[in-house]
């Protein structure tokens, strides 16, 4: 059995990493501690792959650990492919944000709303990159919470786009309601139970809500058609 685990195998982890193990970790990959990897964390990582090897040797499927599949670490990136994808998405969001700022006048009715949405989205991609670089309780929660904030803000954006320009108070009250819902969502996952199934179901339910609000008013689709024919009208968005 791996020295990081007790006599029961793959259940309770105990801190048995020695100073030699810590020195070996620093010598083999000096970048790992930069991402917050401690000796005990590195020991758990190596034990995870030792456990995977035992499962495969006995003819079993690759197991999940705390509901997640094992990933090979690259440099200090715990999930390198996912971290790279999140980083590229964040970069694309940043580039398009700057293009929007350069193309759309500050006085446009939806300017601040779109800029805020881009900021919320960019923040989510930053935390997604951090989470896939180093999976901890804090980074996991921030990744999930920020993803939920993007979904809820997308509903608010649709509400402002379809109703807010003519009935701003309606959009403001709806935005306040969404803030309360987001606060309750964060509070439940933080202080009651961090339920992966509930979090996924809550975010999935938001998508049809966004579509429903958007299709209650054909204005955005008409605007898109006008933009395709006359790009200059985009300045009026």
Automatic annotation (TrEMBL):
It comes from the Eukaryota. The chain crosses the membrane at residues 111-132, 144-163, 169-190. Keywords: Golgi apparatus, GPI-anchor biosynthesis, Membrane, Signal, Transmembrane, Transmembrane helix. GO terms for cellular component: endoplasmic reticulum membrane; Golgi membrane. Pfam families: Per1. One of its GO terms (biological process) is GPI anchor biosynthetic process. InterPro entries: Per1-like. It is found in: Endomembrane system; Golgi apparatus membrane. GO terms for molecular function: hydrolase activity, acting on ester bonds. It is a multi-pass membrane protein. Belongs to the PGAP3 family. Involved in the lipid remodeling steps of GPI-anchor maturation. Involved in the fatty acid remodeling steps of GPI-anchor maturation where the unsaturated acyl chain at sn-2 of inositol phosphate is replaced by a saturated stearoyl chain. May catalyze the first step of the fatty acid remodeling, by removing the unsaturated acyl chain at sn-2 of inositol phosphate, generating a lyso-GPI intermediate. The fatty acid remodeling steps is critical for the integration of GPI-APs into lipid rafts. This is Post-GPI attachment to proteins factor 3. It comes from Scyliorhinus torazame (Cloudy catshark).
